[in-house]
Amino acid sequence: MPNPHREEDQLVRIDPPDLIERQVAEWQGLRADVVTAKQRAPFDYRFQADHHLLVASEHSERDDGETSVEGLPTSTLRSISGRLTFVPAGHEFRGWQHPRVLTRVSYFYIDPRGPLLDDAGFAETDFQPRLFFSDPELWRLAGRLKDEATGGGAGLRHYGEALGVLLGHELMRLNNGSTPRGALRGGLSGWQQKRVAEFIEAHLAEDVRLSALAALADLSPYHFARAFKQTFGAPPHRYHISRRIERAKELLAAQDNSVTAVARAVGFAETSSFSTAFRKTTGIAPSEYRRGGV
User: Fold this and answer.
1) Which pLDDT does position 180 carry in this prediction?
2) For residue 150, is it within any domain?
3) Number of domains forming the structure of the chain
């Protein structure tokens, strides 16, 4: 049977921690961490360690929020159920959300130097990050490991370890360029995501034309708009506004910045239009946010 593991600092950090229940189990080179929310309330999460992290979001829908993996653009995708995320060792994984449902997610921490994958070249593999993707075989293995961790499986230690080996080989298959079976189609490629997201961040205070973004991705405006929404979970204009508001939150934290100055800094000519956009995104006015209304 897998052994319980109590090293909370090696798990994805979720704040506030009392919102969730965890079931943790460990095998050679692999740890499973099954997280279930006890109430529907906003929370943050963060992880960075010398282990790879595979995230299986079984039940995760949000009214607002964003998720980032170091090396990839931030995503504001609302419906995350059934999606996988892979975070290579050393990369930062973080996000926040206002959940629409009681979240259920499984985290799998994989030791790059795990003894069961010594002969496969796993430790030497330069893994690439992936955010919110689909792969039926990885999903199936993650489900079986979750069952083992929660006591719903065979409960045999060697079976859990065998599943871990299969998981490692599937991650290598995916990383080596094989097309993920059942992968989401129609989104932007990695280089397109990075180029477009960086351009938007560099021009937050400007009106960015759809045609300019499409040209960066070498796509027609029509195909770009569809691919952008598939990748980021929102149309380009709405995503641009959301990034402006996130920047405005940072500026509002400095008490010497007036609301008018913040509005102008993030590209709003009128304070009233900024306040309207801010309230629409966050649910409160900029002045209330500054006073600690969230």
Assistant:
1) 40
2) yes
3) 2
